[in-house]
Design brief:
Layout (H helix, E strand, L loop, with lengths): L2 H5 L16 H19 L6 H8 L3 H22 L2 H5 L1 H20 L4 H29 L4 H26 L8 H19 L30 H22 L2 H9 L4 H18 L9 H22 L2 H29 L5 H30 L1 H36 L3
């Protein structure tokens, strides 16, 4: 099948055997590489925001607006097109995501106004959204007997890309053209992914549309979750919303906050600190931690660590800042992976892309809504006071959610103990 026939949802039988018949391992790498690379590009700007703020004369609210435009576009695209890969095929959806990502990166790099920055960020958000459901579903299909590892690879590629973006952006900003060079280099790497994707022999779409009305399959769908998966869905969405609120802070206003704490203007250092929590979250996907109390323990670690991030600023303690950032990432990673795995195990394969996309709709809203509020508060009360209030709210919410999940775990424990042997 050619990419164009897939996009038209009219697969050509004559081309079914054409192309590169890649191994399962190669397909796994490509599915993970696309979402990883797109998320790297979406987060290259984190250490560059202070430069862009000075260059374009942006306010603190303007910086958060540019960041939020990415998240809001991502959420809207997930709602409108999160299921497309079920109908056009995983390969076609990933190629479309890469093309949109290239356009977004170019527009952001060349932006001279806040409106252009927001437009570039919006295209980057749409690209990530198109790839999110497609890559997660592709990994699930490639590892049908190991859904837990499919979920681990999904979260590792996602959180790894988000964590690597600020670090790479900070390092590449040392090249001539600090705000444009990172995007030129990234565009070359992203364009390189189009070659193996185009040559790949695509597998048929899991849910091909009716031949007479193919476009009806792409119409927006009302999000729905089966009764069996509803509890797991809302828990995953709640944990995701909270943890991505913390990530949103790390990727938007944290560079300025960290620079104040450390009294530094080193963009590579600020990029490393911004990606520290997300990097710890990504690496935690490699840990195997089981037990009924993993989720409440992870949320408790997240809550305490977020509170300590605020304390690190108040006490001007770099060591506490680093330790709290790492601990927050580990706690979030373990908790979110566990609830995400439980949801993935309860969702039927044919609806995996749609359900994962719906979870990320709520999860990514956590990166937008609280961060916009933080940006407004920073403009009114100052950054230190706004960050202090933000960490109190997020840390307290994590501890409350930890207590709720602990109670649920204890109830399940008592029910299990009462069962006859």
């Amino acid at each position: 099948m050619t990419v164009f026939s897939e996009l038209r949802m009219r697969p050509s039988p004559a081309a079914a055997s054409a192309g590169w018949d890649a191994s399962t391992t190669a397909r796994l790498v490509m599915a993970g590489a696309v979402i990883f690379t797109l998320l790297v590009g979406a987060n290259l700007a984190t250490p560059l925001y202070p430069l862009l703020q000075a260059k374009l004369g942006l306010s603190t609210l303007g910086v958060t607006a540019a960041f939020a435009s990415y998240v809001l576009s991502l959420v809207a695209t997930l709602m409108l097109a999160g299921h497309w890969s079920d109908h056009i095929g995983r390969r076609a959806a990933l190629i479309l995501a890469v093309v949109v990502g290239l356009a977004g990166g170019w527009l952001f790099a060349e932006a001279q106004t806040l409106a252009a920055l927001c437009a570039g960020r919006a295209l980057q958000g749409a690209a990530v959204a198109l790839a999110t459901g497609a890559s997660a579903a592709a990994l699930r299909e490639l590892l049908p007997s190991r859904p837990e590892w499919a979920s681990r690879f999904t979260l590792l590629a996602s959180s790894g890309g988000v964590a690597a973006g600020p670090v790479i952006g900070g390092l590449l900003s040392l090249l001539p053209g600090a705000t444009t060079a990172p995007y030129y280099v990234h565009s070359l790497l992203l364009a390189g992914l189009l070659v193996p994707l185009y040559l790949l022999r695509a597998r048929p779409a899991i849910n091909p549309p009716t031949p007479s009305r193919p476009l009806m399959a792409l119409a927006p769908r009302r999000p729905s979750v089966s009764r069996e998966a509803r509890g797991a869905f809302w828990l995953a969405a709640g944990v995701g919303f909270l943890s991505f609120a913390v990530f949103g802070f790390c990727l938007s206003l944290a560079p300025g906050y960290f620079a104040q704490v450390l009294h530094t203007d080193s963009r590579p250092l600020v990029g490393v600190l911004a990606g520290l929590t997300l990097g710890a979250s990504a690496l935690s996907q490699l840990l195997t931690v089981r037990g009924r109390f993993v989720v409440p323990a992870g949320l408790a670690i997240l809550g305490v660590s977020v509170l300590l991030l605020g304390a690190a600023g108040a006490w001007s303690s770099p060591a506490l800042l680093v330790a709290a950032g790492i601990a927050a990432g580990v706690g979030q990673g373990i908790a979110f992976r566990t609830v995400f795995n439980e949801l993935a195990a309860r969702v039927e394969a044919a609806r995996h892309a749609q359900i994962v996309s719906t979870v990320y709709v709520i999860t990514y809203l956590g990166s937008a809504v609280p961060v916009l509020g933080l940006g407004w508060a920073a403009g009114v009360f100052g950054l230190p006071a706004a960050v202090g209030g933000f960490v109190m709210v997020c840390g307290g919410a994590a501890l409350v959610l930890s207590a709720v999940t602990l109670r649920l775990a204890l109830v399940r424990n008592r029910k299990a103990a009462r069962r006859p042997l």
